[in-house]
Write a structure and sequence with these properties.
Blueprint (H helix, E strand, L loop, with lengths): L11 H19 L1 H47 L12 H31 L10 H6 L7 H57 L1
Amino acid sequence: MDFEKNEIKPDAGAAGGDHNFRRHRSQHKSGSGMGAEQELESLRIEYQNLFERSDKLDNKVYITVTFLGFMFVFITSLFGSIPELKMNGSAVHDILSVLYIIACIAVSVTYVWNLVYYMRLLAPEHIVRLDPNKIAEQKLDSGTIEEAEHKLIVLYRAIINEDLDKLHLRCDRFVFGLRLVIVTLVLSFVLYGLQMVLKVMG
């Protein structure tokens, strides 16, 4: 008794459809669409990193303000010697006393300047975000995938460039503020040195 082998032949339409789908995917990956996907993904990563860098900068500002709080205690301890200054007729002692008072004024001015500067740096900064309203305005669902990717790329580029300019400006301000802190710290140590010399001479 012969058994006939029932072979299931693939449907021509299904095979053709699968072939067309694979060909479409291969063209999408090898063509310009894949490059647009990679660029869009890179922009997404840069967009996320932008907020992380902004948060790190805020943390550095908070640390610097905390350091200024410790400096305040050190500076106020140095000012306690001002009422004890007396002109004893010695030219060197009198000159150092005047320098001590000038240094106290300079430290006070630079310290207040630091506080005001960093308080302004801690002010809320308007960061441009890719909110749903901006995406809805582009009507991404009315075109092809490639068109939607292109519109998103344009949006991300504009937002990232604007936010990067603001972040670079804040970084430059932070670096300048650190220089002010260093100047205040150096003046404080000069003031401390003058205090020690005056105590020895007095």
